[in-house]
């Protein structure tokens, strides 16, 4: 009934049934039927369609006499265009069904997504807006969750990035039995009425997980193109959905059987397996992949089996019988035969296995392989005598056994009761091997687990760790890999090797194996080899402790592959720079504490103990907090059970200390109780001599400590907490990973904001909002900008401030939406200049601090500070040489001003040193003093270089564009025209003094006398300005917005400022216009001054320049810029302060938070996909 209801609502309330606001219809006079030719969501879009019809279709219709022929022709033409369009798009996604492609196109159009944003699936559902459900469509793309609904004239559009999702959960409400809750930092969204809520929720989890992975290691989603095509066409399932389903199955398959990360499941089928140890046919599933055949029984503990194809010798179909239908026998090199039966498609299965067997390379056993039936017996003396020589000579390491065998003391314990017990354990395992098989093809049952819980004998520990962890598979399929890594990494030094060297002597220093160079050298090689294999992790503290224990029971190569299995599969993300995996499992531990030990949970939360203890327990697998003999038994069970066992034991430890912990007053007391307890967990069966433990200090007290047997602790953990399931833990890991990574991102945001807040005028709230926008723009480049430098792999070792950086195209997009200085079409030009100014290291990327520094210059500070930023934007390096007509003069002018001064100062210091006859130490002292002065000197307005005429004209052009949409634009135009006229005259007067020849001995005097003259001329200039004739016609809006440079120029547009350096010095510059009325061709007096010298479209035919030597036609149509003319920042500032309109404009406050809010509203919903395509390609 529920599904019928949803289906009916879909038909009645289908959002796709909304009529487009603009349509073009074809209808003949005598017909009542009309045909929809085109539709559009905006007037611009429909006009584009109409123009195409006018050019390509309407002219042809005149040749038809019959109306029916016209209708037939139009229908055929439109259908042909659609067919051609579909044909062009077919190769791009030929696997996707037609209906799905239609939904994808609708999604892109509706939400403004580019083509690179792929739709995974879409679902009909209701979104709860307040108390009213909105029926619509939920679109799940690779990077976004989108929802659209149009109901009873009301439209709802939602776009959420997966990287912003903080929580996903299925909830039950009173109205609906099931709904999905999506939480972000700002809101909680509820979706319900799904036809298949489990499928939808699972897909949402996968996509959110991919997004978290992107935040963690910057890996963008890559579709798997190698997926086999489905045998039957799948209705409405995209290739991406199939890809994600396959990934989920592969991950589950690899985790269940501990297989290498590149193993891909080919298929699975129901069957039964004959188990000789109990003479039964066990029902379960057979899984077949490229290199393995695996079996898992339906009853969890009944039987697991892994058969590597490299071990298989014969695969044959046996004769069917009523007792054993469709049997299949598989024989291996170790003389074991496995019988499967009740196979549905046996012939196809045999064919697939045969194909995989043909591709499996036949490898000879490598020299480092263990012989499972007879452990290698190498005498300690031979191992000790051979290895050091080999390593010192730089040869490939050939350690043949664990260090424990080389450094075992001849203890009497081996002959006593403990030795006898150890022998009994070994015998138990030998019997087990005889019944269940030995090596990778062993039947793994509840009996295997029981033996592991009782402790693995020391002689078998390395062998079984390799088997249960899956490390053996990777080792035998990569012969010589470790030796090559050691050879390549020898003599190489980096940050990881430095950290390794620092920690080598802290790794189990109490054990004799690591009190000499042999053990230390082996540990160094394994850790360094892994750091070179996986530079993302490199080296992390706690890896040394775990690796040192692995080396006690395995040779170097085996220890290396065990470390690979630990870091990359069994404890994912544990050993990266932010120990994300350990924090995730810590979150699971807290959740389990709330579930199993509710009384203790609240107390532990108040004390903050869990976050302290769990990291040390999980990262080192209890090796750093328990006596070695006991902790190694924990490691035994961990390699068999995985993280489930560590959580189980942790709960048992808290449970055992509950009463004492509930009475604790602070964290220190709780830590002491737990530390004392763990220090007294003993292994009475250990045959190795006890090793002093670092926590011995905690045992001091009045009462003798109570010893806890490790095997009793393990038994208790299974009795009380064995109902933990691996699948449930994986589900909890996803939930906690969202929480942990988002928490780390918040920490990073606070850290960055705190680092930049001291020097920036923005408030903490504004900086946090800016950081969110900045990071979002960076992430967009990762999944939409394929070739951008900013999308290069992020180095997690860098400080948070340097991890996110954007390029010029991204900066322009942010600048346009956030700047208070909107300049119309000129805004991107201004953005490019600011980017070049901020990019001090010239790597074409800027970080967050540089970004907010640029923004702060426009938003904060007084008029002087804001004008200083604007002034710098019109000098090199901000001003591109290509942006002005006389690039050479502009650049050389700037270089003269800055570098010459520096060189002169430097040479002066050397000269001073020589004149005084000082020693080299003395002039070095002066150099240091000079460098110190340069560093500490804060830039003042006097330090700013002077501006050339063309740079000044560019500045005027910017100001003209900046005022074009202001409410008081006419006042601002008049003010800037007045200031520009004044400054041009000041520049002329200044040029007269700069042209006078000056002797070198008078340089200092000349420089000092220039400023007073400039000051004296200001009143005169103002006086002459007042007498100037100025006529200010009204400028049309269209004239005001085209201040940017254009390549095509008419003669009128080529007008430039005449050479005003003629004889008539001091004559005022007057601007006259024949028409003072508002006209399309007229403009303000300012626009003539600011744009006359460059390529501008605003200059009218009837505009003339008066009062300069520009009356000749040559001067009027293209005279050159005056290179001797210059103006200083102080002169510009003083002039602008005389105009109230300009002062008010630059001192008005703009709310950046409102700008950010508007930018978020506009982004994606109202932008076309072509905009994104342009931005991603141009980067």
Strand order of the largest sheet: 6-5-4-3-9-8-7
Could you say which overall geometry the principal axes of the C-alpha atoms support?
globular
Major sheet details: 7 strands, antiparallel
Q: Kindly name the structural category.
A: alpha+beta
- Mean of residue pLDDT values: 76
**Low-confidence residue ranges:** 1-17, 90-94, 364-369, 373-398, 696-700, 885-921, 997-1119, 1164-1179
How widely separated are the two ends? Answer: 53 Å
Helix content: 40-55%
Number of strands: 24
Protein name: TBC1 domain family member 9B
Function: May act as a GTPase-activating protein for Rab family protein(s).
Pfam family, one: GRAM
GO cellular component, one term: membrane
Walk me through what this model shows:
- This protein is of the alpha+beta class and about 1200 residues long.
- The chain is about 50% helix and about 10% strand.
- Strands 6-5-4-3-9-8-7 form a seven-stranded antiparallel β-sheet. Strands 13-12-11-10-16-15-14 form a seven-stranded antiparallel β-sheet.
- α16 packs across α17 and α36 packs across α40 (about 1085-1090).
- May act as a GTPase-activating protein for Rab family protein(s).
- It is a single-pass membrane protein.
- It comes from Bubo bubo (Eurasian eagle-owl).
- One of its GO terms (biological process) is system process.
- Its main location: membrane.
């Amino acid at each position: 009934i529920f599904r019928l209801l949803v289906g009916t609502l879909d038909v009645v309330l289908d959002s796709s049934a909304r009529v487009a606001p603009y349509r073009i219809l074809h209808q003949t006079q005598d017909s009542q039927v009309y045909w929809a030719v085109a539709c559009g969501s905006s007037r611009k879009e429909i006009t584009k369609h109409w123009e195409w019809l006018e050019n390509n279709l309407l002219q042809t219709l005149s040749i038809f006499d019959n109306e029916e022929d016209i209708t037939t022709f139009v229908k055929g033409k439109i259908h042909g265009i659609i067919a051609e369009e579909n044909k062009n798009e077919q190769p791009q996604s030929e696997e996707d069904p037609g209906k799905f492609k239609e939904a994808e196109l609708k999604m892109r159009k509706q939400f403004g997504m580019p083509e690179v944003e792929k739709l995974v699936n879409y679902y009909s559902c209701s979104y709860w807006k307040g108390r009213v459900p909105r029926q619509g469509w939920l679109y799940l793309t690779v990077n976004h969750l989108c929802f659209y609904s149009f109901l009873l004239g009301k439209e709802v559009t939602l776009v959420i990035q997966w990287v912003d999702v903080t929580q996903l959960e299925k909830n039950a409400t009173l109205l609906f039995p099931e709904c999905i809750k999506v939480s972000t930092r700002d809101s909680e969204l509820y979706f319900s009425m799904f036809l298949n809520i489990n499928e939808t929720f699972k897909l949402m989890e996968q996509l959110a997980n991919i997004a978290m992975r992107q935040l963690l290691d910057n890996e963008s989603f890559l579709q798997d193109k190698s997926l086999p095509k489905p045998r039957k066409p799948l209705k409405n399932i995209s290739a991406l959905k199939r890809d994600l389903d396959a990934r989920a199955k592969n991950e589950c398959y690899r985790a269940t059987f501990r297989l290498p990360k590149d193993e891909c499941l080919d298929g699975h089928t129901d069957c039964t397996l004959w188990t000789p140890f109990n003479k039964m046919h066990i029902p379960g599933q057979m899984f077949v992949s490229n290199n393995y055949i695996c079996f898992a029984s339906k009853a969890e503990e009944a039987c697991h089996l892994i058969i590597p194809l490299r071990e298989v010798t014969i695969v044959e179909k046996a004769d069917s019988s009523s007792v054993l239908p469709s049997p299949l026998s598989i024989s291996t090199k170790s003389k074991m035969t496995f019988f499967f039966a009740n196979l549905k498609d046996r012939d196809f299965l045999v064919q697939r296995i045969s194909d995989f067997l043909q591709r499996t390379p036949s490898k000879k056993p490598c020299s480092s392989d263990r012989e499972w039936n007879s452990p290698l017996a190498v005498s300690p003396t031979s191992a000790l005598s051979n290895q050091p020589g080999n390593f010192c000579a730089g040869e490939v390491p050939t350690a043949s056994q664990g260090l424990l065998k080389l450094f075992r003391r001849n203890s009497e314990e081996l002959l006593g009761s403990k030795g006898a017990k150890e022998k009994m354990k070994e015998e138990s395992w030998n019997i087990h091997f005889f019944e269940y098989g030995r090596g990778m093809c062993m039947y793994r049952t509840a009996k295997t687990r029981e033996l592991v819980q009782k402790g693995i004998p020391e002689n078998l520990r390395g062998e079984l760790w390799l088997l249960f962890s899956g490390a053996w598979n990777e080792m035998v399929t990569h012969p010589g890999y470790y030796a090559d890594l050691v050879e390549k990494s020898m003599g190489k030094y980096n940050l990881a090797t430095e950290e390794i060297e620092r920690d080598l002597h802290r790794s189990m220093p109490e054990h004799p194996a690591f009190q000499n160079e042999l053990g230390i050298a082996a540990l160094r090689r394994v850790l360094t080899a892994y750091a070179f294999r996986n530079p993302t992790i490199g080296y992390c503290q706690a890896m040394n402790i775990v690796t040192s224990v692995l080396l006690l029971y395995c040779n170097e190569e085996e220890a290396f592959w065990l470390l690979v299995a630990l870091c990359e599969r069994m404890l994912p993300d544990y050993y990266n720079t932010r120990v994300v995996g350990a924090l995730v499992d810590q979150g699971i531990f807290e959740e389990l504490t709330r579930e199993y030990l509710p009384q203790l949970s609240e107390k532990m939360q108040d004390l903050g103990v869990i976050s302290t203890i769990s990291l040390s327990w999980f990262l080192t697998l209890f090796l750093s907090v328990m006596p070695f003999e006991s902790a190694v038994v924990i490691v035994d069970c961990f390699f068999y059970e995985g993280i489930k066992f560590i959580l189980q034991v942790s709960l048992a430890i808290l449970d055992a200390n509950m009463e004492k912990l509930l009475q604790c007053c602070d964290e220190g007391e709780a830590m002491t109780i737990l530390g004392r307890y763990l220090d007294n967990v003993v292994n009475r069966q250990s045959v190795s001599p006890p090793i002093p433990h670092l926590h011995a200090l905690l045992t001091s007290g009045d009462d003798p400590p109570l010893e806890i047997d490790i095997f009793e602790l393990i038994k208790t953990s299974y009795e009380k907490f064995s109902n933990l399931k691996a699948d449930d833990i994986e589900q909890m890991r996803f939930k906690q990973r969202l929480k942990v990574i988002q928490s780390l991102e918040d920490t990073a945001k606070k850290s960055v904001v705190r680092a930049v807040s001291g020097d920036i005028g923005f408030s903490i709230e504004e900086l946090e909002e800016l950081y969110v926008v900045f990071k979002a723009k960076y992430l967009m480049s990762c999944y939409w900008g394929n070739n951008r430098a900013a999308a290069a792999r992020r180095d997690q070792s860098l400080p948070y401030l340097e991890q996110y950086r954007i390029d010029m195209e991204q900066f322009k997009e942010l600048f346009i939406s956030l700047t208070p200085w909107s300049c119309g079409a000129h805004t991107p030009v201004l953005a490019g200049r600011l980017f070049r100014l901020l990019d001090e290291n010239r790597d074409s990327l800027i970080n967050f601090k540089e970004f907010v520094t640029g923004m702060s210059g426009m938003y904060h500070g007084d008029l002087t500070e804001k004008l200083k930023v604007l002034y710098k934007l019109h000098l090199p390096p901000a001003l591109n040489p290509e942006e002005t007509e006389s690039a050479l003069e502009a650049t050389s002018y700037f270089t003269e001003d800055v570098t010459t001064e520096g060189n002169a100062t430097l040479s002066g210091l050397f000269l001073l040193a020589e004149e005084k006859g000082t020693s080299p130490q003395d002039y070095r002292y002066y150099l240091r003093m000079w460098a110190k002065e340069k560093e500490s000197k804060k830039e003042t307005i006097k330090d700013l270089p002077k501006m050339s005429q063309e740079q000044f004209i560019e500045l005027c052009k910017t100001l003209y564009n900046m005022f074009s949409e202001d409410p008081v634009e006419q006042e601002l135009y008049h003010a800037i025209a007045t200031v520009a006229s004044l400054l041009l005259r000041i520049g002329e007067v200044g040029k007269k003094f700069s042209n006078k020849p000056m002797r070198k001995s008078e340089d200092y005097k000349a420089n000092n006398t220039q400023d007073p003259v400039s000051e004296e001329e200001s009143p005169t200039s103002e006086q002459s300005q007042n007498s100037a004739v100025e006529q200010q016609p009204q400028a049309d809006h269209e004239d005001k917005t085209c201040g940017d440079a254009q390549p095509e120029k008419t003669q009128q547009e080529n007008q430039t400022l005449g050479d005003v350096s003629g004889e008539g010095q001091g004559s005022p510059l007057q601007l006259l216009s024949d028409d003072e009325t508002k006209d399309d061709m007229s403009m303000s007096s300012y626009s003539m001054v600011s744009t006359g010298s460059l390529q501008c479209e605003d200059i009218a035919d009837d505009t003339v320049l008066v009062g300069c030597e520009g009356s000749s036609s040559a001067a009027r149509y293209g005279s050159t810029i005056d290179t001797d003319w210059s103006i200083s920042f102080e002169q510009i500032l003083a002039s602008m302060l005389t105009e109230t309109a300009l002062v008010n404009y630059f001192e008005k406050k703009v709310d950046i938070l409102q700008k950010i809010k508007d930018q978020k509203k506009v982004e994606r919903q109202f932008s076309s996909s072509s905009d994104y395509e342009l931005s991603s390609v141009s980067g």
